[in-house]
Design brief:
Blueprint: E1 6-13, H1 18-27, E2 34-40, E3 47-51, E4 54-58, E5 61-71, H2 72-86, E6 95-101
Antiparallel strand pairs: 1-5, 1-6, 2-5, 3-4
Helix pairs in contact: 1-2
Keywords: Nucleotide-binding, Phosphoprotein, Transcription, Transcription regulation
GO cellular component, one term: cytosol
Protein name: Nitrogen regulatory protein P-II
């Protein structure tokens, strides 16, 4: 059905939470996601570490970026699942952004929007 509303959910999480989040998302019916290793900073603003006796600033913290495209009707459930699964209660747990997708196309078949997922 053309015009089905589709959402892009972008989430940054701690790397050690990736497998747990992936399992939880597949458990609620998410059929695919893109995963990227990234570096960033927010409230943490980096920190200092000692390497071979010298102290140096770590300005960027390793994170995992998830990009998940789902039908709009699933978006809230996906956000809630990521939020509850990735949360440790400590600074740097991450962020979640939800965006409208103007168009989605499956390359192999030409299906569009929610049918393309």
């Amino acid at each position: 059905m053309k015009g089905n509303k589709v959402k892009l959910i972008i989430a940054t999480i701690k790397p050690f939470k990736l497998e747990e989040v992936r399992e939880a998302l597949t458990g609620i019916g998410v059929r695919g996601m893109m995963v990227t290793e990234i570096k960033g900073f927010g409230s943490q603003s980096g920190h200092t570490e000692i390497y071979r006796g010298a102290e140096y600033a770590v300005n960027f913290v390793p994170k995992i970026k998830l990009e998940i495209v789902v039908s709009a009707s699933m978006a809230d459930q996906v956000v809630d699942t990521i939020k509850s699964t990735a949360q440790t209660g400590k600074i740097g747990d991450g962020k979640i952004f939800v965006l409208d997708v103007a168009q989605a196309v499956r390359v192999r078949t030409g299906e569009t929007d929610a049918d393309a997922l």
